[in-house]
């Protein structure tokens, strides 16, 4: 599946003096056609297409049942959510004698066990979401790195064309 992600707009032709960059279809340049494999070059936009199909089991483990499925392409974690949590030492267990285990004790134990289960489930869900999002971002990073490498090659070709032109016809 492909997703669109926007990155900053490219500089206008007026800003790029002495360099040959493909900026927009309405502003043609003397550059040769760039790599057709780059999505931005293919559709003339500033969008990156990332092929990312997470394992359905991972998505199921990252989604809350009964709610919308977790989408690693759109979900953004806040800085607070990604902060490492401090290690809290557990309190020493205090054994309660059997003669003190009344109905109030057992109701509190049941309530505490349910709260502990909810807390573990919430933590596991968040960890799964972060790992799926990290996998998506790694894939996107690879695509963007490849696009940058292709653009650098294209820039080198454009500069060579300009240098050849300037050597034959003088400075621009």
From TrEMBL:
One annotated GO molecular function is: DNA-binding transcription factor activity, RNA polymerase II-specific
One Pfam match, given by its short name, reads bZIP_2
The keyword DNA-binding belongs to this UniProt entry's keyword annotation: yes
Q: Which UniProt keywords apply?
A: DNA-binding, Nucleus, Transcription, Transcription regulation
Gene Ontology cellular-component terms for this entry are: nucleus
What is its subcellular localisation?
A: Nucleus
The ranges of region (Disordered) come to 24-43
BZIP domain mapped to chain residues: 102-165
What family classification does the UniProt entry report for this protein? Belongs to the bZIP family. PAR subfamily.
How is this protein named in the record?
BZIP domain-containing protein
């Amino acid at each position: 599946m492909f997703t669109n992600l926007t990155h900053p707009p490219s500089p206008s032709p007026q800003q790029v003096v002495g360099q040959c960059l493909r900026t927009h279809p309405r502003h043609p340049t003397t550059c040769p056609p760039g790599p057709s494999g780059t999505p931005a070059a293919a559709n003339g936009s500033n969008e990156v297409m990332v092929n990312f199909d997470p394992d359905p089991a991972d998505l199921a483990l990252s989604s809350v049942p009964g709610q919308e499925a977790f989408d690693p392409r759109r979900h953004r974690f806040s800085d607070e959510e990604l902060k490492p949590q401090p290690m809290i030492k557990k309190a020493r267990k205090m054994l309660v004698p059997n003669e003190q285990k009344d109905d109030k004790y057992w109701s509190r134990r049941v309530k505490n066990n349910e709260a502990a289960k909810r807390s573990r489930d919430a933590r596991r869900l968040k960890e799964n979401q972060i790992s799926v999002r990290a996998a998506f971002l790694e894939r996107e990073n690879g695509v963007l790195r490849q696009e940058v490498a292709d653009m650098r090659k294209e820039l080198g070709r454009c500069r060579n064309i300009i240098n050849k032109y300037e050597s034959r016809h003088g400075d621009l």
